[in-house]
Amino acid sequence: MGWRASTHSDKSTTTDLFEGPTPRHSLLSGRYKQSFAYLTLRTRMPGIMQQIIMRLLSDLPDLVNKYGEEVRKDVKQIVDAVERLKMELNRDRQFLLFHGAEPDKVEWNAFITEMPRPKKSFFRACWLHAECYLYRRIFSFFENSRHLQKYDCFDHLKKEDLMLSEVAMSALAKATRGLAKSFDAFSKLLRINLWGNHFEMQIGAFKFTEEDSKDDINVLVKVADIDRILLVDDTTLIWNCLVLASKSSGNRIVDFICDNGGFEFFTDMLLLEYMVDNNLATQVRLHVKAIPWYISDVTRADIEWTLDFLTGHRDECLSALGKKWTHLMNTQKIVIAPTSYFWTGPQPYFVMVESDIELYRMLTTSKLAIFKGDLNYRKLLGDFIWDSTEEFITCLRGFRPTNICALRTVKCEVVCGLSEGLADSLLKNDHNWMISGNYGVIQYTDSLKCSCALPGPDSSEKNTRMLGMVVPQSERSTLITNK
Ligand SMILES: O=P(O)(O)OC[C@H]1O[C@](O)(CO)[C@@H](O)[C@@H]1O
């Protein structure tokens, strides 16, 4: 979402950078000058930091009204700190330890201390580490201020994104009321959710024909599919996992590891509402970010604001939706999981079991964990250039607290699970296919402990039908379920 690239001047003092793209079987890193990591660190991040400064300065009169003249000192200190961070990035300085009131500083400092010295600077570190560190440093400036400890410098962008999406939200709200429990509806909601980041732009530009009803979910799927290609589709496996689980008694929790707020969160909620309404889960746990993160990631405060915004909306359907979702939250059908700083740490998910055993244990109590978006995908795959045909399960490196699903539009060079030759043919047609966000994957793997695999060869078709399960069409999906 949001920030435009800046025209920041390139006065790097970095030396050992490589001219080419990121080599196969390497961690993403700003060391490779033809990588998106390099572009982000060199151009996008300084631009983002400059916009934070501009935002803060334009908010100053309001802040003075709210906190008094004293807040000017806070603002000046934060602006200076962001400027210093820009300079550190530009000069590829070593990462500094945290010394303030950051609740997660022990974990961050341990991580930084353990980094090998040659990889402890912005352009030499793994991109994931450098980027997370930048966002963590930025919020620490606010956290350690006198008055602005809770200030979310991205708040306005998330709110604007939602407010600008009224047409799409209203159409989606109408089209998704009273959907029957069916694989078809589930699959469409999953796809709408996948393309959530871009849907508003799509629907705004879409020319409805006379026959098209804006209130019909099929039209919305058509809109969402324009120019977008699903490279892996494990929807049947996800559906079967949920349907099979629904045959057992007791709690069936689904963990949803959120990505962005704004319109994307709206589409998340449509999917999750459908799941609890149709007994595909007895409870959904939302995992949100503890601090403002990667510009548009959703926090608890964003969710509260979103529900209030919808509830008070003049569009009756949106207002009813806001009330219903608030009710789902009040009755614990959808809950926000306890805050975990692991989600805003630098670590890939395969270290969660050592690094945050409580969180890992929590995930083991659910039937399915859905990881949304590009950053979650990078953390699932360890920010590593796998062979594009490598199996999803291999790339998770043992991270299998429960059945896992990734819903992700491809925005950087990390990908796996593609069929042989697909990556090459995509590259031939579109050099930017890995950063355009025009392609997506819906990937799934079941956990070792789980009995959610599809029926084996000896299971009768009758059994499958009785359970309401769907037999996957693709050979690939069958292969996965036979594991
Ligand atoms: O909101 P998403 O889908 O996680 O995307 C965030 C991603 O986009 C980028 O800005 C570009 O890849 C990365 O920094 C990050 O991985």
From TrEMBL:
Entries under Gene3D superfamilies matching the protein: 1.20.930.60, Uncharacterised protein PF01937, DUF89, domain 3
Keywords, ordered alphabetically: Hydrolase, Manganese, Metal-binding, Methyltransferase, Nickel, Transferase
Key word Metal-binding present: yes
EC numbers, comma separated: 2.1.1.-, 3.1.3.-
Residue ranges of domain Damage-control phosphatase ARMT1-like metal-binding in the record: 40-425
Single GO MF annotation: protein carboxyl O-methyltransferase activity
GO cellular component entries: nucleus
Cofactors that this protein relies on: Mn(2+); Ni(2+)
Superkingdom field: Eukaryota
GO aspect biological process, one term: DNA damage response
Catalytic activity: L-glutamyl-[protein] + S-adenosyl-L-methionine = [protein]-L-glutamate 5-O-methyl ester + S-adenosyl-L-homocysteine; beta-D-fructose 1-phosphate + H2O = D-fructose + phosphate; beta-D-fructose 6-phosphate = dihydroxyacetone + D-glyceraldehyde 3-phosphate
Record region (Disordered): 1-22
Function: Metal-dependent phosphatase that shows phosphatase activity against several substrates, including fructose-1-phosphate and fructose-6-phosphate. Its preference for fructose-1-phosphate, a strong glycating agent that causes DNA damage rather than a canonical yeast metabolite, suggests a damage-control function in hexose phosphate metabolism. Has also been shown to have O-methyltransferase activity that methylates glutamate residues of target proteins to form gamma-glutamyl methyl ester residues. Possibly methylates PCNA, suggesting it is involved in the DNA damage response.
Domain description: Subfamily III proteins have a conserved RTxK motif about 40-50 residues from the C-terminus; the threonine may be replaced by serine or cysteine.
PANTHER family: DAMAGE-CONTROL PHOSPHATASE ARMT1
Similarity remark: Belongs to the damage-control phosphatase family. Sugar phosphate phosphatase III subfamily.
Name this polypeptide is given: Sugar phosphate phosphatase
Species: Drosophila mauritiana (Fruit fly)
